[in-house]
């Protein structure tokens, strides 16, 4: 085999390959025997056609069939000998072959670029660390959510009040007020006073009873378009919250014995959640800053392959949810995310190689033990789940990711910013 590699750019290679007739003769003859068995010729049994007759009539077909069956073998042989690992399907050109002559072709493909890490120095990047300052409203809201999760539903006949749920059917009407066939939606839930209701719309539901009807103008898309519907009430449901007493506290956590203990428990969970939120945002900004600092080159086909997987996953999810989105829409939406993740993948591998980062079986088992400790009642299911190699691999990847981030944190200048949670609540209300 003779070969020549041309570096077109950091990630594109063009490979010119030549195999002599002696190198391909054995494979050609084997392919010829298989080919002859598929040919039907009067006077001869399959596979018993004389070679001169077969070549006289089918030589071009024989050569084409050989290329179809064996070209990939010779391409892979050349890649192995040159230690090249394409990340996409090669573009084959300049293909030449005739029986008793050499086989030659060119293959153009992309490889993972050979990126390098810069010299990391102390305080080389600044990353913001949010320290969330919670207040009593957070605790009250969390307890309110706990009460709602243990609420009972009561059927109301005396008329809906604000906060009640109206279970109804919605019949879409045309501009003249007539029902549109095929546009009736049963078992719909409308919360009185919530969502996109104006005061006028809300008043139409206040006091409404089962079997009564009214008309509402409701939004039909995110562009603000609206349509009129006839509402037929099936029932009115009212959420009845439990009292904040010892019975309720024991339902939430049998180990607690007072309202004060419940508040303390809730506050610890709030602190933990905000600490996790702070950690996640800090690490994400750290990754973004490192990507910007290193700025690795990535092969376009690697981004395309990543986007192909995103498109497939999202289309499967959207199909289940009844959402229609074209491939181009998904690719446009996630193109920057795909490129960023491919760049981070490259940086991760460079750091892993440079710092010899790994996760052994002991590391993985310790993480599984932590999961069991947090959910002792599910120990059997957890240990069974992580016997599967692919699931253990996820823990291994997570451990390695944490080690990489811990390594990078030594080069960070941390900017601490205090965030009042009341400001977060106000932002949330403004975005509703």
Distance between the termini: 67 Å
Per DSSP, the total helix count is 12
Number of domains: 3
Q: Which spans have pLDDT < 50 for at least 5 consecutive residues?
A: none
Can you identify the CATH class of the largest domain?
Mainly Alpha
- The number of distinct β-strands equals 11
Largest sheet: 5 strands, antiparallel
Explain this structure to me?
The protein is α+β, with helices and mostly antiparallel strands and 432 residues long. It has 3 domains: 109 residues, Trigger factor ribosome-binding domain (Alpha-Beta Plaits); 186 residues, Trigger factor, domain 2 (Orthogonal Bundle); 89 residues, Roll (Chitinase A, domain 3), CATH 3.10.50.40. The chain contains 12 helices and 11 strands. Strands 6, 7, 8, 9 and 10 form a 5-stranded antiparallel beta sheet that branches. It has a 4-stranded antiparallel beta sheet with strand order 1-2-4-3. Strands 5-11 form a two-stranded parallel ribbon. It is extended, with a radius of gyration of 34 Å. 12% of the residues are buried.
Task: Describe the secondary structure blueprint for this structure.
Layout: E1 2-7, E2 12-19, H1 21-36, H2 51-82, E3 91-96, E4 103-110, E5 125-133, H3 136-149, E6 152-155, E7 165-173, E8 179-191, H4 199-205, E9 213-219, E10 226-240, H5 246-252, H6 259-294, H7 300-321, H8 327-355, H9 361-374, H10 379-385, H11 389-409, E11 412-420, H12 421-431
Parallel strand pairs: 5-11
Antiparallel strand pairs: 1-2, 2-4, 3-4, 6-10, 7-8, 7-10, 9-10
Helix pairs in contact: 1-2, 3-6, 6-8, 7-8, 9-11
């Amino acid at each position: 085999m003779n070969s020549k590699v041309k570096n077109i750019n950091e990630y594109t290679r063009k490979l010119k390959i030549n195999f002599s007739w002696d190198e391909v003769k054995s494979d050609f003859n084997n392919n010829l025997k298989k080919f002859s068995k598929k040919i039907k010729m009067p006077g001869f049994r399959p596979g018993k056609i004389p070679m001169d007759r077969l070549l006289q009539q089918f030589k071009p077909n024989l050569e084409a069939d050989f290329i179809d069956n064996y070209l990939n073998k010779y391409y892979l042989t050349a890649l192995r000998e040159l230690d090249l690992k394409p990340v996409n399907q090669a573009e084959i050109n300049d293909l030449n072959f005739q029986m008793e002559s050499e086989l030659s072709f060119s293959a153009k493909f992309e490889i993972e670029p050979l990126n390098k890490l810069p010299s990391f120095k102390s305080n080389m990047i600044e990353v913001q660390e949010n320290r969330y300052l919670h207040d009593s409203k957070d605790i009250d809201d969390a307890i309110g959510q706990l009460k709602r999760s243990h609420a009972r539903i009561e059927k109301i006949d005396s008329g809906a009040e604000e906060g009640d749920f109206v279970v109804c059917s919605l019949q879409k009407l045309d501009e003249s007020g007539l029902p549109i066939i095929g546009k009736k939606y049963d078992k719909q839930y409308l919360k009185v006073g919530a969502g996109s209701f104006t005061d006028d719309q809300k008043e139409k539901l206040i006091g409404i009873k089962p079997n009564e009807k009214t008309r509402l103008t409701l939004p039909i898309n995110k562009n603000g378009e609206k349509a009129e519907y006839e509402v037929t009430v099936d029932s009115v449901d009212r959420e009845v919250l439990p009292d904040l007493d010892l019975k309720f506290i024991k339902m939430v956590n049998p180990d607690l014995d007072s309202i004060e203990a419940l508040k303390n428990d809730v506050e610890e969970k709030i602190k933990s959640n905000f600490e996790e939120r702070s950690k996640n945002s800090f690490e994400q900004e750290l990754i973004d800053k490192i990507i910007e600092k290193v700025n690795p080159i990535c092969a376009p086909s690697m981004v395309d392959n990543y986007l192909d997987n995103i498109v497939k996953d999202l289309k499967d999810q959207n199909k289940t949810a009844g959402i229609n989105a074209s491939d181009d829409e998904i690719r446009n939406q996630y193109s920057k995310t795909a490129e960023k993740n491919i760049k981070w993948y490259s940086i991760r591998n460079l750091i892993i190689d440079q710092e010899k980062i790994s996760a052994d079986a002991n590391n993985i088992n310790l993480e599984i033990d932590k999961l069991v400790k947090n959910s002792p009642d599910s120990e059997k299911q957890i240990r069974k789940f992580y016997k599967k190699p692919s699931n253990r691999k996820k823990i291994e990847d997570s451990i390695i990711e944490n080690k990489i981030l811990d390594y990078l944190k030594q080069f960070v200048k941390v900017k601490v910013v205090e965030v009042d949670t009341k400001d977060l609540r106000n932002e949330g209300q403004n975005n509703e």
